Amino acid sequence: MSDDRRQQVEHGRTTLGIELGSTRIKAVLVDEDLRPIASGSHEWENEYVDGRWTYPLVAVETGVRAAYADLVADVERQFGVRPTTFRAAGVSAMMHGYLAFDEDGELLVPFRTWRNTSTGPAAERLSDALDFNVPQRWSIAHLVQAVLDEEPHVAQLAGITTLAGYVHRMLTGQDVLGVGDASGMFPIESGPVDSAPGEPGRRDYDVGMLATTQDLLGERVPDLRALLPDVLVAGEDAGALTAEGAAWLDPTGTLQPGVAFCPPEGDAGTGMVATNAVAPRTGNVSVGTSIFAMVVLERALSTPHEELDVVTTPTGDAVAMVHCNNGASEIAAWARVFGRFAEAAGERAGTTAPSIDDVYATLLAEAADADPDAGGLLSFNYLAGEPVTGVEDGRPLLLRTPGARFTLGNLVRSEVHGAFATLAIGMEVLHGEHVAVDRMTAHGGLFRTPGAPQRLLAAALRVPVALEETAGEGGAWGIAVLAAYLEHTDRSLADFLADTVFGGDAVHVAEPDQRDVEGFQDYLGRYRAALPVQDVAAAATRTGAPTDQGEPTDPDVSADQGEPTDGAEPRLPAEQTAATDQKEPTR
Fold it and tell me: Which of 142, 359, 438, 547 fits as disulfide partner to 98, beta carbons 3.0 to 4.6 Å?
């Protein structure tokens, strides 16, 4: 097998996937059977600059290069050869946010990531005008907020894109996006999509909503559509690696131009691919720094819901997305505390400290046998604000009454329940819409430990939860699979995944246990009732510094973001005109 894979590398028959996550950039190389054979990564962190979370573009360039160089080093260690070309390649990254460029391709303001929640007025105006929920994270919300705040850079705008779109443009020179990533910039047209074999269905931004938004923006943004990247669906040609792109990715000069690229996608889309969840009635849950669930819809929702984003699969089918800003970070914090305790105890006893995987396994095994309702304990994982529950400034909290059963198992189960609670609240909206879900597939680091996390998620969501063996490979593998699909468009993406990619994989399914379901519902009732504690805790502990993964805690930070100093509400150009027309006559 190694010799065959060495030949695949030598002859350019492997496929490359690169994904830029919130804390790590990862590159994966897959063989002709779409199995990972090498990987590389680079750790990075966002920065808090002038009241906003950002990543400098120089960090994007150095980080992608470092991850690719690490991949190449892994290939050399295993196979004794450096890759010079690939069968195909693709780029994925965190969705949403705002990258604004002038006509010379120069960045006008620092990259504004999905973590920023400074676009509330814009998101509210857009949602009302479009009769469609536009979350604060979306690119159009950032653009409209910049207009509301009368930011000078708006006059110089020539284009906006996402992080995946930017990296793809650097590699290929093409200003395009996969439809899934584009659906986090601006709403995509609804209705059935023609994704017949051999003829990928075309998608574009919703024309009526473009016109409505253009009216709101007025002359400040003369041509909104011209600012947005072109939209492509899975299987469409998205350009090829240029000589400049090859040098940008691999300064050694080893990598050659000409590699075919698939449309760049967002992490939600690659998560759907990595979990075989692109067909109607399927869905997935991703648990990381944030946590989100995706359900592919059979029909349109009856009404907009602020708890739900409507985005798309990489082929353009509508998806309801419940996105929560806070995921497994608090569980990880507790694991580090207990890991250090075990290490310190081991030092005193002269024994070897357990690995972090062993720490997780021990803690989650305790949670599996704990009281179904966590014994009366209550945990909030809110390191950041949480729009789903209306919390603007979060605080991690562990609460218990004097009569609660404070055990290790209940503590850990409470933290796991707390990580899933906000997601469950958002998913209740889908239950109310009678959206059918046959099963959800889970992925993310928390599910590296089998058993309790999968079982407790099934109880929280009240649906079967599956784990695919390959789901742990993540978004870099997912975008590599989408790149490989360029040669398989004689079939639908759903059939390609089901028959070719996942056909032989083992699937582990956890059904909701009624005792766990009832225990979680008891927990969730206490969780809802205690939500006001978040506001009290935030007000009592504001320091003016940003939280670890959330927004600034200074209540006056909005003054730095263009809010009027006289207390007047900012208006879009169209609203200013309307307000002028409706003034009372002079008496």
Answer: 142
